[in-house]
Each structure stands twice: as structure tokens, then as C-alpha cells.
Amino acid sequence: EAGVTQSPTHLIKTRGQQATLRCSPISGHTSVYWYQQALGLGLQFLLWYDEGEERNRGNFPPRFSGRQFPNYSSELNVNALELEDSALYLCASSLRLAGGFYEQYFGPGTRLTVT
Amino acid sequence: GESVGLHLPTLSVQEGDNSIINCAYSNSASDYFIWYKQESGKGPQFIIDIRSNMDKRQGQRVTVLLNKTVKHLSLQIAATQPGDSAVYFCAEMGFSGTYKYIFGTGTRLKVLA
User: Fold this and answer.
1) Is the pLDDT of residue B87 over 50?
2) In the CATH scheme, what architecture does the domain A21-97 have?
3) CATH number at residue B65
4) Closest residue on chain B to A89 (Cα)
5) Cβ distance of B43 and A109 shorter than 8 Å
6) Tens digits of per-residue pLDDT, B7-44?
7) Chain A residues inside the 8 Å CB shell of B99
8) Which terminus, N or C, of chain A has the lesser number of Cβ atoms within 10 Å?
9) DSSP assignment, residue A25?
10) Domain count, chain B
């Protein structure tokens, strides 16, 4: 069974540009989560999508946005990039949240570098 | 490869010994907990989970203990092997008005030969 996949592996952008990161969940998983992992820090929750809708977002400015497509894949967009946005962006997927939580399976991440 | 957690607390353990990694969680409404292992250059890998109606759960070579009174979670790895070297972090999930997903910063485990 294929795991969570993310693209691109690495992305280099300059300050002020926009970045688009992509994620394909495990087959059968409808929930997709996005996290930011800055070097030396833990994961910070960004966004949660389920069934095409944004269900929750973390404490990040509106220039962090995304969407989930009908096939449950997802896209994270970061506008007006700042140097502090440089981090590893991880996508995870899980079964549908219905009356409880399920383990999240992570992809390998996209390393975003803003210069 | 990637460097994860350059300035994390480090636990050094002799190969073959048992390892205990601790985590203090923050939200008393959290009712689901997971331990993840993250090797350099890779995404976090699920190790074991536990729900709040349990205080202990065992897997293969790993045991998770949950103490809700003091909001403490621990991961025990039996007979630690070189392949266990990685960053380990706990995650707590709960609902209190909104869904909360909180991840610890992690502990680096170094296995000494």
C-alpha cells in the first residue's frame, strides 16, 4: 500500500513569493493535515481538511491556506513568503474523524527554503 | 540528509539496555496520545498509541504508559537497538470546543554500541 506522498521534496523561493506544496493521502483516508516543523522545533499544526472542507486551523496567519480536492489530495499555499517560513512542511492523513481520533500517517515532507 | 531537532534533549543508551522517554502533555481534555519516531530526512513514523481510558499499552518491544493525574506519558523501548536511534516525540489530541493537535518538541535517542 502506498504511503502519503508529498511534492516537491525541496522548494527554494525568495521572500515575497508564493509557494505551493502538494500532498496525496493514503488510499481510503479522507482527512489530511498539514504541519510546519522548523529546525529544532516540534510540529506545529497548520490545517486540517476532511471531505473537501477546512475543519480546523492552527495559529498561523491567513497567508497560509490550502484546499482539498475531490480525490482527497491537498494543496498548501503560502503567500508573501517570509524568511521565517523556511521549514519542513509535513502532510499527514488519517481515516475519517468520527467519534474519535485515529493515528496520522506522515509523508516525507517538503523542505521549503526562503531566501 | 535532514537534521531534525538540533537542540533537543538527548538520551544516550547502551545497546541492549531499556530506554524510557518521557513527555508531559498540556491539555487535560486530550484523550488520544501517540508516540512518533522521526529519523533524519524522513517524516514521523507512528510507533504506538493509547487512549485516555487506558493507562498502559504494549506493542512489540515498546510500551506506552499514561498517567492522567500528572499529565505524563512515557515510552519504554526494550532491548534498545542501533536502529532505534532517532528523535521521538509525543502527540496529544483532544476536543475542547475545537480539535487540538499538540506535538512535543521531541527527545533524541542515541544508542551507543
Assistant:
1) yes
2) Sandwich (2.60)
3) 2.60.40.10
4) B43
5) yes
6) 678 999 999 999 999 999 888 888 899 999 999 888 89
7) 48, 55-56, 97
8) N
9) P
10) 1
